[in-house]
Amino acid sequence: MNNSELLSIKQRFGIIGNSPKLSYAIQVAAQVAPTDMTVLITGESGSGKESFSKIIHQLSPRKHGKFIAINCGAIPEGTIDSELFGHEKGSFTGAYEARKGYFEVTNGGTIFLDEIGEMPLQTQARLLRVLENGEFIKVGSSKVQKTDVRVVAATNVNLQSAVEKGKFREDLYYRLSTVPIFVPPLRERGNDIDLLFRKFASDFAEKYRVESIKLDEKAKEILLRYRFPGNIRQLKNLVEQISALELERQIKAETLLKYLPQNSSSLPAIYRGGNENQTESLNERDLLYKVLFDMKKDMNDLKKLVNGMIETGGFDKSIVNDNPNLFRDMDEAPAVIPEPAESTDYSEPIYIQPSNTEDEEFGYENVHDISHEEDESLSIEEKEKELIIKALRKNNNKRKYAAQDLGISERTLYRKIKQYEID
Tell me: the pLDDT tens digits for 42-73? Predict the structure, then answer.
């Protein structure tokens, strides 16, 4: 397909963008359209999968037949068979008359089954029979009927994974994915984001009879960096909000940021489709992001905990109570927080007790009093070093038992001894 043919298809179906991945998807759709092959369109929600089903129908010999788009996830499980294949009068409660289903009504045309992964297993078996033999049976009937319908399916979930979990028929999956088409998410389309923004801005300016909004350079940079987990649907909604609510038509970065959800602006949107290699790579990246953000949160909580110890001279239990999973994924607790004995009274701060015989036995001094001495340094490292030395002295330099008293691993204790050059 040459560039002029590709441009003609884009103009005809209102597709905006010059992304290579988008152009390739359009090319595949145009090539498969004249055939009767079943097509499976994959991509994230809001990426524009339905537009490709219309391309396939309009460029096919069936273009004069009916085209029906059905969201399988929006039809209740108890009625989807009746909706798709029809039913006979009296076949179930409320069936006061016979009804034709979509596969009968659309004979000679195209059915677009969106969210095919949400289709119940029983209905999947009926659909497989239509794809294999062009036959179906109405609910409550025993008569086999014929239909000539082309099926184009779409999903935003990984059907291979659904097959492994027993939620989707393997034979139906291979029958549907005769020709797979992957629609790229908006964040992978580069400058297409800016093109779509300007197109939507122009449309809404005409709709609301106002001047079209424009982005300054910094706002444009922010827009292009945003990941748009809701894809084109989210971008369109964003432009409409700004067009309707902002009086100033030159949109600055500060204004744009007000409309972008800050908690997801730098997070990846998870798509469970595509081929196996793409999914594996994407999952690894998603996990990496999650680990990094969890680590950042844990470090912030740890700083609050240590600052509370320094400021009060004691251990702020409320921080741990409010964050029960603070040390859940750590292989060790901070060395400055020794593990208390089972008989510890939790009505008092952990290990901050008046100096008495029990404290001397466990090797701890009155930390509260020490923290208020003027010559005592408030450095966290020095306090950590001091506790390590006391634990070693108490246990006659036996690292194993000193580590147990401190509530850390022996390996970590060894590293700390080297770090602080403790003899």
Answer: 999 999 999 999 999 999 999 999 999 999 99
User: Residues 201, 214: contact at Cβ < 8 Å?
Assistant: yes
Per-residue HEC secondary structure of the chain comes to CCHHHHHHHHHHHCCCCCCHHHHHHHHHHHHHCCCCCCEEEECCCCCCHHHHHHHHHHCCCCCCCCEEEEEHHHCCCCCHHHHHHCECCCCCCCCCCCECCHHHHCCCCEEEEECHHHCCHHHHHHHHHHHHHCEEECECCCCEEECCCEEEEEECCCHHHHHHCCCCCHHHHHHHCCEEEECCCHHHCCCHHHHHHHHHHHHHHHHHCCCCCEECHHHHHHHHHCCCCCHHHHHHHHHHHHHHHCCCCEECHHHHHHHCCCCCCCCCCCCCCCCHHHHHHHHHHHHHHHHHHHHHHHHHHHHHHHHHHHHHCCCCHHHHHHCCCCCCCCCCCCCCCCCCCCCCCCCCCCCCCCCCHHHHHHCCCCHHHHHCCCCCCCCHHHHHHHHHHHHHHHCCCCHHHHHHHHCCCHHHHHHHHHHHCCC
Burial class of 94 by CB neighbour count within 10 A (0 to 12, 13 to 18, 19+): exposed
With a cut of 70, list the residues of the chain below it in pLDDT.
Answer: 263-291, 293, 308-379
Against a cut of 0.85, is the pTM above it? no
